[in-house]
Design brief:
396 residues, 15 helices, two-stranded antiparallel ribbon, globular, mainly alpha
Length: 396
């Protein structure tokens, strides 16, 4: 007589693989580093230069302590020295040389040190994390910043303390980070990541904070990002070479006309939006950059243009490394393009708060695109790596 049993024949179930504690701590550090740089101006306004400088110093030293053994042990892979963004890294070097040559004030040297420290953290993030981990960490940092901004705003409404109003008294900073957050949360939503409803709510909060801050420079940056996004999505939907050429011609003419109109009507636009106070004229950007020397200004322009060029094709072209030409696009490839456009337009429009976090994203995206030009391919991008001791284990 057949015997029945409740025990199945297959192997007993096992718990899914999880990331190691070291990997989770690394991502926690990256989130803190993003917060320290993105909210640096707010920390400076709220707590003074000593506290904000100490936060940046501690974060930099911690990053150096993390990066040194990783590079020495080639974990999770060998450091891609040949893929360093040399044009971007040359800018603070020329700035420091210009300061020393001209005997500039101490503030310029401090800013150069801040740029070098931020560049070092950016290189560590690009080396240690995958594209997916970078956007997840950036999203987490922006959630913390927006949450603290909302709490500060509620505090100001309850106790009428204007010192906390608009996150450190700087509406342009809050508006710029809100525009950046809309991009990050929108990409996460388009990727159908987990907690889509929560991600959408965070995007709504970012939009509310963007419009409540009423920053003209942030509006210009968001408008420029929208135009570039529409252009990129149009190119993605156009496969024929002749049609792409027409789109490029029309889009290039349109962007050139909008840029010229913005440069000519710059002061009038900011006055209409209520922010004409201390915004510089774009025509005087090169005169203002004389403090870092003509060579330094040219090197910075070269770094920005180089990233825009790489980021455009990173976003507009299909991922391809063999004869197959029908692989789907990834919404994540839009991240570097939109981020650098928003940061550049805000900086040119006169928002000093966008300089530091824009510099961080410039170095990070330049390095990551050169090292891993295809999302999910190359330098351990095909699968996430979890380190448990000396043995590397992969998660499917």
């Amino acid at each position: 007589m057949a015997q029945y049993t409740k025990h199945p024949v297959q192997a007993p179930p096992t718990a899914p693989e999880r990331e190691s504690t070291g990997r989770l701590l690394l991502r926690a550090y990256v989130i803190i580093a993003f917060i320290a740089v993105l909210a640096h101006d707010a920390l400076l306004s709220l707590f003074g230069g000593l506290a904000s400088g100490a936060a940046l110093l501690v974060t930099t030293l911690a990053g150096a302590a993390i990066a040194a053994p990783m590079i020495a042990r080639q974990t999770p892979h060998a450091f891609p020295w040949r893929r360093l963004p040399w044009a971007a890294l040359a800018y603070p070097v020329f700035a420091a040389a210009s300061d020393l040559w001209s005997g500039s004030a101490t503030d310029s040297l401090v800013m150069t040190v801040v740029l070098l420290a931020t560049a070092g953290m950016s290189l560590l993030i690009g080396f240690a994390l995958t594209w997916d981990e970078i956007i997840r960490s950036l999203a987490s940092a922006l959630k913390w910043i927006l949450g603290l901004a909302l709490a500060a705003e509620a505090w100001a409404r309850l106790f009428h303390d204007d010192r906390f109003l608009q996150f450190g008294g700087n509406p342009a900073l809050l508006a710029g980070l809100s525009a950046l957050a809309i991009v990050v949360f929108g990409i996460q939503f388009a990727r159908r990541s987990r907690w889509r409803t929560t991600t959408a709510l965070w995007g709504v909060l970012a939009a509310v904070l963007l419009f409540s801050a009423s920053s003209a420079t942030a509006y210009l940056g968001a408008a420029a990002g929208t135009v570039v996004l529409v252009f990129a999505l149009t190119i993605r939907r156009t496969s024929a070479l002749a049609a792409r050429r027409r789109v490029y011609a029309v889009g290039g003419i349109l962007i050139a006309l909008l840029s010229a109109a913005t440069a000519i009507l710059h002061r009038a636009l900011l006055a209409a939006l209520g922010e004409a106070g201390d915004a510089p004229d774009p025509a005087n950007i090169m005169d203002a950059s004389a403090q870092v020397g003509v060579v330094g200004a040219l090197v910075l322009c070269l770094a920005v243009v180089s990233l825009l060029w790489r980021a455009w094709f990173f976003a507009a072209d299909r991922p391809r490394w063999d004869l197959r030409a029908d692989r789907p696009y990834s919404s994540l490839t839009l991240l570097p393009l939109l981020c650098i456009v928003i940061a550049t337009v805000q900086a040119l429009a006169g928002s000093s708060s966008a300089v530091l976090w824009g510099w961080m994203l410039l170095v990070l995206c330049s390095f990551k695109i050169k090292a891993v030009p295809l999302v999910g391919v190359g330098l351990r991008e095909q699968a996430r790596v979890t380190e448990r001791g000396r043995r590397a284990r992969r998660i499917p």
